[in-house]
Amino acid sequence: MPLLFLPLIMTAFAAIGHSEALAQQPVQEPLQVRLGYLRAYEPQLTLSVLDLAPRDEGVAGANVAIADNNTTGSFLGQAYGLDVVEVKLDDDITAATEELIAKGVDYILMDVSAEQLLSITDLISNRDALVFNIGATDDRLREEACHSRIFHTAPTRTMLADGLVQYLIWKQWRRWVLIHGSHDRDKLFADALRRAAERFGGEILLEKEFTDTGTARRTDSGVVQIQRQMPVFTQDFPEHDVVLVADESEVFGTYVPYRTWTPRPVAGTAGLIPSAWHPASEQWGGTQIQNRFAKANGRRMLWKDMAAWTAVRVVGEAVTRTQSAETQKTAEYLRSPDFSIAAFKGQKLTFRTWNGQLRQPIFLGDGRSVVSTSPQEGFLHQVSELDTLGVDQPETQCVLD
Amino acid sequence: MLGRLSCLSSALALATGVATPASAYMVYVSNEKDNTVTVVDSETMEVVQTIEVGQRPRGITISHDGKLIYLCASDDDTIEIIDTATNQIVGSLPSGPDPELFVLSPDGGTLYVANEDDNLVTVIDLDSKSVVAEIPVGVEPEGMGISPDGKAMVNTSETTNMAHFIDTATNEITHNVLVDSRPRFAEFKPDNSEVWVSAEIGGTVSVIDNESREIKQKISFEIPGLRSEAIQPVGVRITADGKKAYVALGPANRVAVVNTETYEVEKYVLVGQRVWQLAFTPDQKTIISTNGVSNDITFIDVATDEPVQSVTVGALPWGVVVSPQ
User: Fold this and answer.
1) For residue B275, what are the CA distances in angstroms to B127, B209, B250, B255, B318?
2) Considering only CB atoms, which chain A residues are within 8 Å of B178?
3) CA A216/CA A210 separation, integer angstroms
4) Which of the four CATH numbers 3.40.50.2300, 2.130.10.10, 3.90.1300.10, 3.40.50.720 does domain B29-322 have?
5) Is the confidence at residue B294, as pLDDT, over 50?
6) B227 to chain A: closest CA residue
7) Topology of the domain comprising A31-155+278-360
8) By a Cβ cutoff of 8 Å, what residues of chain B touch chain A?
9) Do B201 and A340 lie within an 8 Å CB cutoff?
10) Mean pLDDT lowest among A83-87, A288-292, A379-383
11) Do residues B302 and B241 make contact, with C-beta atoms less than 8 angstroms apart?
12) Contacts of B181 in chain A (CB under 8 A)
């Protein structure tokens, strides 16, 4: 009997000791923060095989940021996870979005088209989800079609065009000709370049459309023809400093540099290209994220990877600072003066409160290196020099509910 | 122009002539871009030697007896040891990958190194030149400070945005204090009472109480005509009497002088472009700033807080250390 009794007493004591320890230092379950990643994906052809998007473009950046958040979270009792869902390019994304929300995902990164994004605005409002647009550069998503539950870490076409044009003006290369493609997105980027020219004092002397006649992107002896065709296509240009190219559709842009009638630099979607990140940027601590990314993924970091990394870090920062994973608190915090995020771009990044767009510098690079970063010196602004890039508050058409 | 120059040089000669013959110190500046360390005489304020070192030299410190310099050669993944008698590299330490900044223990026996790529603080025993511990910390560890009593070490992690307090007896983290964005540097007050942590992107310095390990004060900076994004605090140094703190403000091109009692900024000293790190001379009469983009260092008079002279060093000067008395 006594032998049996003893262990029982010990157990009781142990239990008391344990509960006291609990009272002193509460051991809490980590705060679970589940993020979703919805992407519309199909392999896309490009003029150069070097420009083919990696299979995990964007997702790889989100994963690195999840790991970063979890390292931080290990000190704070937070655990982050990522659910990735893929649909086809023009699919209806309603079901996929609903599915993510049903799984308990409150924060969704989206790399989808503007049309797809606009189709789920009611859904995310009703379900208190918060969306980060990491892929669509359409200005209208931040303007007439803006939405209070959508934040944008992807830059807009006007931000990209303004960043590029500021540099051309700084170089005093002010006279341009513009070749644009025949698809909608090419025309939208051409619009952004025209707007930038007007804003910063450049002159577009001539415009020409390069019509997509449905030819194959790459053929065995295609280069021979291109070498003959591009000079002829650019032969009638007036005297100019730079050839601007707007070809998001990858129909001709890559073929413009070195093939023009007169020897002129090329900029836009080919030549000197504006982007939210550059795979060779090592400034402002960039080496560290580049190393971390390359080690995890075996390739260089592209702009969409950076947009996704930033979105996940923004969520981590909001959860840490507000000590809550509630989307409403996060949304309020992201619009408050207390919020800023560091993203290896030399200064703090904040959201434009009036439309949810992340302010950010624009990198100008060729295929090899960063040539410059905009805003350029001398382009001043009363609030933030980053607001010299893209549509500014006085011009905005966005009305948030 | 000539007249002005000769005027200036005679004034300088006069100043040097009447100065009390305080012992000259050697100032060692790591030049991140051209893989050198520039040696400057603190009295003549002239370059006396340029030492070729490993790739991308950044963090730099000196043994308490002044005989050895420890230098992070970040891209060579090593810490180089330079003999100050000959200014030759005489050895290296197993630093772990991409060492950027480190701090020497007050007893001179241990070096604590921040390894940015691996989220680790590496603890190196200098006698045996061996790694005795690796402490997992937040993302991108950078700033390293140690309390003068040697009991607590603070590491800052740039993406996690924390000051991690590490007990040097156990090499374990005891407290994690959230600070503003991209903390770069940690500096203890000489009386062990506070740690000052700069946040480069956040634009602030958090003063953390070393008893409670809580933030007791947050210092921000305002410079007329400069947008807030350009104010990026990095290096912090506090005078031996604990009365004044100097904060290097990066692209604001200035060093802020802060009253440690009121936490008010009393002055902004204009130095060179992108000022990052600072070091006092042992007599505390001068503090020296490294100005990365203008490739120079600036000597600031601690009594008046006026810049005295700038000296051109190598390309992108990063860290600075001064030989002891």
Assistant:
1) 34, 27, 4, 8, 9
2) 76, 320-321
3) 15
4) 2.130.10.10
5) yes
6) A384
7) Rossmann fold (3.40.50)
8) 98, 116-117, 119, 138-140, 157-162, 164, 173, 176, 178, 181-182, 200-203, 227, 229-230, 232
9) yes
10) A379-383
11) no
12) 340-342, 348
Say yes or no to pLDDT of A344 above 60: yes
Domains of chain A, residue spans: 31-155+278-360, 158-275
What is the per-residue pLDDT for A16? 37
For residue B203, what are its two tokens?
């634009």
- Report domain extents, chain B: 29-322
Asked if A96 and A85 count as a contact pair (C-beta separation under 8 A), the reply is yes
DSSP state of B200: T
Look at residues A358, A392, A10, A318 and name the one whose alpha carbon lies nearest to residue A150: A358
Give the gap in angstroms from C-alpha B36 to the nearest C-alpha of chain A: 20
The pLDDT mean for chain A works out to 91
Instruction: Assign residue B130 a region (left: φ > 0; alpha: ψ between -120 and 50; beta: otherwise).
Output: beta
From the number of C-beta atoms within 10 Å of its C-beta (0-12, 13-18, 19+), residue B200 rates as buried
**Is residue A212 classed exposed, middle or buried when 0-12, 13-18 and 19+ CB atoms within 10 A define those classes?**
middle
What CA–CA distances, in Å, run from B261 to A119, B180, B206, B238, B244? 58, 22, 14, 12, 8
Q: Look at the block and give the residue holding tokens 């644009």.
A: A180
Share of chain A above pLDDT 70, in %: 92
Contact residues on chain A for B203, CB-CB shorter than 8 A = 348
The question of ipTM being above 0.90 is answered as no
10 Å CB burial of residue A232 (0-12, 13-18, 19+) is: exposed
SS (H, E, C) A76-142: HCEEEEEEEEEECCCCCCHHHHHHHHHCCCCEEEEECCHHHHHCCHHHHHHCCCEEEECCCCCHHHC
A384/B160 CB distance under 8 A:
no
Comparing CB atoms, the residue among B138, B181, B227 nearest residue A342 is B181
Beta-carbon contacts below 8 Å between A and B: 63
User: Cis omega before residue A2 (within 30°)?
Assistant: no
CA distance A194 to A208: 13
Which of B159, B173, B202 faces A68 most closely, judged by CB atoms? Answer: B159
User: How far B283 CA sits from the closest chain A CA (Å)?
Assistant: 34
pLDDT at B140: 95
| Residue-wise DSSP of B217-265 | EEEE---TTS-GGG-----EEE-TTSSEEEEE-BTT-EEEEEETTT--E
In sequence order, the 6+-apart residues with CB closer than 8 A to the CB of B252 are: B221, B223, B226, B230, B231, B232, B268, B275
Dist CA B164 CA A75 (whole Å): 9
The H or E element containing residue A362 is: strand A362-365
Q: Per DSSP, which regions of B22-171 are E strands? A: 26-31, 36-41, 46-52, 57-62, 68-73, 78-83, 88-93, 99-104, 110-115, 120-125, 130-136, 141-146, 152-157, 162-167
Contact state of A75 with B181 under an 8 Å Cβ cutoff: no
Q: Which residues of B touch A337 (CB under 8 A)?
A: none
| DSSP type of residue A202 | -
Q: Which residue of B has its CA nearest to A380?
A: B227
User: Tokens at residue A319, please?
Assistant: 């959860």
Question: Which of B139, B202, B229 is the closest to A72 by Cβ?
Answer: B139
Chosen from B201, B215, B234 to mutate, greatest number of chain A CBs within 10 A: B201
Angle between helices A286-297 and A303-322 (to 10 degrees): 110
| CATH code at A158-275 | 3.40.50.2300
Instruction: Name the average pLDDT for chain B.
Output: 92
For residues A190 and B254, give the distance between their C-alpha atoms in angstroms, rounded to a whole number: 42
Q: How far is B7 from chain A (nearest CA, A)?
A: 36
In three-state secondary structure terms, B125 is strand
